[in-house]
Fold these 3 entries.
Entry 1:
Amino acid sequence: MSQALTYADLARPSAKRLALAYDLGLIAVGSLLVALSATVSVRLPFTPVPWTLQPLAVLLVGALLGARRGMAALLAYLAEGVSGLPVFAEGSFGIAPLLGPTGGYLVGFVAAAGVTGALAERGWDRRFLSTWAAMALGSLTLFAFGLAWLSRFTGWSGVLAAGFWPFVPGDLVKQVLAALLLPAAWKLAGRARPGSGGP
């Protein structure tokens, strides 16, 4: 299937230097969006994993920027946190969050943005059901990374209760929200390429 435009491609300059500056700016803005989403955080008493708006921001960054820029934005976000900026959940920073119980989720951000970005590049963000499917696959990718690492701290017997089931309802709401917003925005833009819709 040929590659479809992402939102970020709509205004991308044709000149190489301007295009590079444009891409770098979007990557920086994407990392900032994820950092801002981390400020909305709720500590749950029965799990070391806090509830945040980060998963929604990660999936949207991937869908809006595409796979490469989306993953680069999340790598930049991780680099900012490791370098000492308090951009992780609850204002944390440094290498400790990557090595702690939530480290798998942080690494999974990069992969999740890549999944939703790659699917958006195939037109999956143009219709409600395909957008929802893209968001769900991105979310499952994030959970796969997060749970695999979290199991080191909780054991496999307790990992779903600590890192999956409490977050499913909120994730479903976020997925539906994205599935409503992205196709509606494409319709407003009037730029959906005919025949580029997903499954």
Entry 2:
Amino acid sequence: MRGKLPLGPIWLCILVTSWALCEDGKAAGLPSDEAVPSFPTPLAQYHDTAIPNVIDRLIHRVEVDPFNLVATIIFFCAITHTFLTSVFTKAARRYEDQFAALEPQELDAALGKAVARTRDRLQFRAQVFGFLGEVEAVFGIWLVPLFLVIVMMKGWPALVDYSVKINAAEPIFVVAIMAMASSRPILRIAERGLASVAGLGGYGPAAWWITILSLGPLLGSFITEPGAMTICAVLLRDRIYNLNPSKELRYATLGLLFVGVSVGGTLSQFAAPPVVMVASVWQWSFSHMLINFGWKAAFGIFLANTIYFLRYRKELFSLSPERIRRGAETRPIPKRIMLMHVLFMVWVVATAHYPVLVIVGFLFYLAFVQATGRHQENSSVRGPLLVGFFLLSLVFHGTCQQWWLEPVLGRLGEWPLMITATILTGFNDNAAITYLASLVPDFSATLKYSVMAGAVTGGGLTVIANAPNPVGQAILRDEFGDGGVSPLGLFLAAIIPTLVVGSCFMLLR
């Protein structure tokens, strides 16, 4: 009968799961005399400090633990998948169109049953391919083979122990801060601040463009990068993308935004994930960040924006003959509601490293939003949850890549290290790059500078290069057509800003 679940596969899954738990369930709370082996293998257990060649060291580590190679293959399969999401999205749209086209035939008594079964299949395929086309879901999808391999090669206790060790603080924080920063009251506050600067240019599209891209990313040093990304992306969507700019300008703007936000969080030591990962270990203070990174990042952002502004100035001035003014919304927001939203964000930022406190604050925030619904809009948490899922999955994958990242980073000189960190950031979250660098012993001050500069410089090259990038993509994806943001298009658009900012870090020593 339609609507009932197939019990055979369900019971098979239950039996297999039960068998696995019975065999290895001692790690799930049952008494055990055997300690769960460390996983992933700690770097010290490879005993390969005497092997000078990086390639030989990597081969040795694969021989010691073959799981390393398998996990890295899965990781790069996931990266390849991110470049193919547009293909799955187009397939999902095709199945959706076929599903809709068959609706009239389902009402026909003679064809109803057969057409209904066909529509069920089409709907299921559309949902599956749509899920495969979600960039934020890609690394989560590839957790399935990763977990299976861990269970097969290491056992169920290793997977349980590994999942317990995973630090979910950053994904939880991003979910909360993204939801709050995208709320109507916070956007109104940020818009008013940026509007005061855009007013110097008459509130036109060109003035909004240069203001958002120049000042918006620097907010990441104070309201965190995910918050700055959310505010900038929403304002760009409403002030620039809604005016139907050319495809070339759309990607150029996105490239500037991603690179700007990646380096814009370096004015402080508490807001950008790649900085937070090492600030306490390397004892970097606010003044250290501002003097060594912050002003260079701000100069690089301004210089890159100027280059692109000169390139697209004619189109920017021709987007709309009418000025975009403040106060377009007729319904005002009470100041007390704005204040409460600010206080909720302050709480989340202050407790960012304590997930339980973040969750408690976020639950109270959701209750407040519900109680003041007349002044709220776009309060869906679907986007933030997808981004959080993306980041949590990336942490699961990234931690298994220590075996090759550590020797690659540890053997490089100053400039080769910065260039390598920039390139690796395109294939791994920059917070993971800096964190792994903090594990390398005897890192000099120069090398610390190089790896940080390289990690933040490369944070705009791909969606996975910087934690807030999926936030921006989730907000602006519909502005790039059915296929969403093209990874190649983003990469090409971000090259020039990346080179400009990287040159500032390299030359302004």
Entry 3:
Amino acid sequence: MELPKNIKDEIWDYCRLNDITDLNGFIVKMLTNGFTSEKFGSTPWEKPVEVKEVEVIKEVEVIKEVQVEKFIEVEKIVEVEKEIFVTDDEANIELKKELTKVKETLKLSLSDFEKLDEFRRNLDEKLDEFRRNLDEKEKEIGILKEKLETEKSKPKKEDDDIYGGKRGYLGSNTIDLWNNKKQD
């Protein structure tokens, strides 16, 4: 028969504290006493109970240490797949040399790329500056065109000539041309 765990633990603790080593014998004894008590009652009817007083003085110093050891077992299963390549040391040396060359080439390529990128940025800056200058020049050209249109739309004075209306200077032969032009 199986005893419940809590009862078993209580019996075990009691036996440990009272130095009872035969655990199974103690359990049978307690079972018999309990069954007898149940069967005949707590006090027998046939015999009167004799009460004897016995005075016993014992000095017992009991110091008990209970050590509890706990073991935690953790089991981890890790599956690792490995591919092992068997190679020749000379081939490894050659591969390392080739890898070093490739790394150097890559470093040089990166350096060239950085220079190219810097050149592109400088070119972008110059293009932006050129566009700004071009915009300014187009504005200036627009202003000059407006002035030119304004000058063209002004009516010309008939008296104007290339000398500012003075009809030529003394000794100039253009006065004759001026006079001829008026007569036509």
